[in-house]
Amino acid sequence: MKASSKDPSKAKTERATARSQTISIAYDREADALSLIFGKPAKAEAEEIGPGVYARYAWQTGRLAEVCIVGFFRRFHKKPQKISVPEYVGPTMPTDKELRQDYLDYLN
Fold first, then answer.
1. Half-sphere CA count of 49, side-chain side, radius 13 A
2. Distance, CA of 78 to CA of 72 (rounded, Å)
3. Which residues are within 8 A (CB) of 49 and not within 5 positions of it... i.e. 6 or more apart?
4. Where are the domains of the chain?
5. What is the distance, to the nearest Å, from the Cα of residue 87 to the centroid of all Cα atoms in its chain?
6. What is the per-residue DSSP string for 77-104?
7. Is the pLDDT of residue 28 over 80?
8. pLDDT tens digits, one per residue of 41-94
């Protein structure tokens, strides 16, 4: 086996860049509904994931677009509760091509 002659102190390091995402928060006092919208609004389909908890997923990618909690104050005013929401819906994670298309749809 041949030993490497490269100096490890001069090795290039790559840093992962974290993607940021805007989350819009809206509360309708009359309806007692809290909405968390991830990124810009997208064409999406709603799915009830728990009693009074709805998740909307982008049609093309299955990416989580919004979470809506009906009866928010009534349910959460006394103590915090945990809600588990899948980030994606569908049989597989979206491909890079699907993510790019979802982003292009989002821009239009």
1. 20
2. 11
3. 55, 83, 85, 86
4. 21-79+93-107
5. 5
6. SSS-------SB-SSSPPPHHHHHHHHH
7. yes
8. 788 888 898 889 999 998 878 888 999 999 999 888 777 777 777 776 665 555
